[in-house]
Write a structure and sequence with these properties.
With about 130 residues, the chain is mostly helical. The chain is built from 7 helices and 2 strands, in the order H-H-H-H-H-H-H-E-E. Helix 1 crosses helix 5 (about 45-70), helix 5 crosses helix 6 (about 80-90) and helix 5 runs parallel beside helix 7 (about 100-110). The termini are far apart.
Length: about 130
């Protein structure tokens, strides 16, 4: 899959095709498990193999920034925090496909709120 991915999409085209707008569009599925069965959808590990960890990191960073901006956190993630979080996700969840991750990020946005705990910080909602 990673060879096919690299020959079909440049890193820039991949990020444009699987952009953060998918976060909202994929939330309509009843279960993220439905998305795991999409045939031919690249997995995060495929992205890392095709474009290196830097490619996976850049894709994840744009999605994490969308979540961070959406929830209106006063303290935004620093570049270093974005890199660390992106690398951790890429290393821990290479088996998740891109659609699953987009849906997860979309649902994360809908369940997050700001809660004062020593300042403003992102916490999951108890909905």
């Amino acid at each position: 899959m990673s060879r096919n991915l690299a020959s079909t999409y440049s890193p820039k085209l991949f990020c444009e095709t699987y952009n953060p707008d998918l976060q909202s569009r994929l939330m309509i599925v009843k279960s993220i498990a439905e998305l795991s069965m999409i045939d031919g959808c690249p997995k995060l590990g495929d992205v890392s193999l095709a474009y290196g960890i830097e490619g996976a990191r850049e894709w994840l960073k744009c999605h994490l920034l969308k979540v961070n901006c959406f929830v209106g956190a006063k303290l935004k993630l620093t570049d270093e925090q974005l890199i660390d979080l992106s690398d951790q996700i890429a290393c821990e969840y290479p088996y998740l496909n891109i659609a699953e991750l987009c849906c997860f990020f979309g649902r994360w946005k809908s369940r997050c709120r700001l809660t004062p705990v020593g300042g403003k910080k992102l916490t999951p909602s108890s909905k």
